[in-house]
Amino acid sequence: MNEETEMTPEQANSVDEQIRKIVKQNTSLLDTHAEDLKTVLAKLAALPSKMKPTGYLRLQGNHIIQIFNCGVAPLQKYFAESSAEFLEEVRKLFDICFSFCYTTDVSKRVSFESYVRALAFCFPSEPNQCLSTAVVSKLLELVQIIQEGKLVANVGLLQIYGANYLFGELLQIFESRRHEDYLVEIIHQTVRLASVDAERAIKDITLQSEHMICPAFVRTWMRLLTLTYVSNGFAFALAKVDSPSCTAAQSVLDELMPFMFGAVPSQTMNCLSWPITVCYFINVLEEMKRNGSDVSLPMTRKGWIYSSTI
Length: 310
Fold this sequence. Notes:
Elements: H1 9-25, H2 31-45, H3 61-78, H4 84-101, H5 112-122, H6 133-147, H7 155-161, H8 164-176, H9 183-200, E1 206-207, E2 212-213, H10 217-225, H11 232-241, H12 250-261, H13 266-269, H14 277-290, H15 304-309
Antiparallel strand pairs: 1-2
Helix pairs in contact: 1-2, 2-3, 3-4, 3-5, 4-6, 5-6, 6-9, 9-11, 10-14
């Protein structure tokens, strides 16, 4: 241990006392997990004192263990432990958990399971594929929007599985695109478009016969992202074209919507303004494939579509 991390006997005793106190507060932990908690707390306490994270002191013991295993440990492979970047990311891991999973606003509270899933996606075993805590926050914002129930195509599934099933679908899509450029931008656009959907949702209006909730613009975005010949860059370019407040070409929307989302009550549609570029392209691309056309889009940042659109 270097001079920056070396502790005096008094500091070491203080850390030991702190560890005993936290373990004592988590009496529900099995003996093996209690030992794991002691080990994790000791490792966190041994981090360089400058910018040392303390947010973990507010969390449950089992949460501390999982955050260390799923977040801190992968970061140790990516950053030098003594680096300011590593310490800042570790601090944010615990702060984000407290902010989303322990908030007193129950309507905004995210399950710890969703938090761990976000960690597993952002910090896989391959260090070169690690994302950042900023992406973790974005994914949890997405969970919060989904929990409101405005983006779900099937109310029954929401009631049975909560926000997990739609979040799981999105994570699978993101995972399939992990090795391409613009992954972070795709995630940011997903959150933005989900927010647009939620803002334009009409409270308490459902299609009772099909148990549908309107609107479902994110579903169209997901359809685009599931097309293997559509690159992240192309999808990102399309999403950037639409302004969240765009109300242009409503007549085009009136023609497209029955094909994209099925029959939707006219009184519901008249209250909505939809971003249209992605909606238009997804139908064009799918129709081209149905007609047997060979659809090929540029897959690199140097492709012509990016220089002319982004």
